[in-house]
Amino acid sequence: MSLLLCAPVAMISLVTAGAIETVALKQPQVTDPPYVHAHKIKGRVRFFTERQEEIYAVAKPLQFPSFVVGFVLMVAFVRIEENFKKQKQQDFLDRAVR
After folding, report:
1. I need a surface site. Which of 2, 71, 77, 96 has the fewest CB within 10 A?
2. How far apart are CA 26 and CA 30, in angstroms?
3. Distances (CA, A) of 31 to 8, 24, 45, 49
4. Which of 77, 61, 67 is nearest to 7 (CA)?
5. C-alpha distances out from residue 41 to 28, 71, 77, 90, 96, Å
6. How many domains does the chain contain in total?
7. One digit per residue, pLDDT tens: the chain, 98 residues?
8. Among candidate residues 27, 74, 71, the one with its CA nearest the CA of residue 47
9. Could you tell me the residue range of the domain that residue 57 belongs to?
């Protein structure tokens, strides 16, 4: 269940932050109300609106951790599944020998 939540969170945060950064490329390079929040985008300082800043402040920090947590859960799930298959094979062999 956690793995099913991590992938959408990672993708939504990635797309959202990317969309804001793309729009910001056409926004002013100097503070000009309502553009008051400075961010470095593609090597240049661009300014976000208050709303963009609020969304970006949530989306950007979620990207990396959600990918990491999703990867760790995926690896754990694969290992658990492999162990389950090995145990099932061992049980079958034990019953076949008796």
Report:
1. 96
2. 12
3. 34, 13, 10, 10
4. 67
5. 12, 27, 37, 56, 64
6. 1
7. 777 888 899 999 999 999 999 999 999 999 889 999 999 999 999 999 999 999 999 999 999 999 999 899 889 999 999 999 999 999 999 888 87
8. 27
9. 2-97
Cβ-in-10-Å burial (0-12, 13-18, 19+) of 20 comes to buried
The first and second tokens of residue 65, run together, are 């951790």
Amino acid (1-letter code) at residue 64: F
Q: What pLDDT does 5 receive?
A: 83
Phi and psi at residue 47, to the nearest 5°: -115, 135
SS3 of residue 39 by DSSP: strand
pLDDT of residue 53: 97
Burial classification of residue 48, based on how many CB atoms lie within 10 Å of its CB (0-12 exposed, 13-18 middle, 19 or more buried): buried
For residue 45, the SS3 value is strand
